Amino acid sequence: MKLIIAVVQDKDSNRLRNEFIKANIGATRLSTSGGFLKSGNTTYMVGIADDRVQEVLDIIHETSRTRQQFMTPQVNLDAEDTTASYPVEVQVGGATVFVVPVDQFHQF
To answer: Which of 9, 29, 64, 71 could make an SS bond with 95 (beta carbons 3.0 to 4.6 A apart)?
Structure first.
C-alpha cells in the first residue's frame, strides 16, 4: 500500500476530484496555500494499493496543468537599486506529488 500526497492548484482541484470519483478512488482533500505566490492550492491524500499507484499518477498528470501567470516581485526598500519592479511571467500549476510506502493502514 502507498500514500500519495498530491498538491495541485485550486483551478485543477475540482476536475481532479471528479476524475477520482469516476475511477472509484477515495481521497482526502485539504485546502492549502502555496509559498511562492501564496496562491490557493489543494492537497489530496490518497491511500491506494500498490497495483493502482500508476493509475492515480496518470489521473493527476492528465488533470493538473501548468500555466503562465504574471507576478510583480516585491520591492526591497533596503536596496540601493530604486528601479521600479516590473511584472515577470512565471510558470504555475501542475502538481507536486509524493508517493510514500505505508506500513499499516487502519480504518476505525
So the answer is: 64
Task: Provide the residue ranges of all domains of the chain, joining segments of one domain with +.
Answer: 2-70+87-101
Which CATH architecture group holds 2-70+87-101? 2-Layer Sandwich (3.30)
pLDDT for 19-29, tens place per residue?
999 999 999 99
Q: Other C-beta atoms within 10 Å of 13: how many?
A: 19
The amino acid present at 12, given as its one-letter code, is D
Q: What is the DSSP letter of 55?
A: H
Give every CB contact of residue 1 below 8 A, 6+ residues apart in sequence. Answer: 47, 48, 49, 50, 101, 102, 105
Count CB atoms within 10 A of the CB of residue 76: 9
pLDDT tens digits, one per residue of 19-57: 999 999 999 999 887 655 566 789 999 999 999 999 999
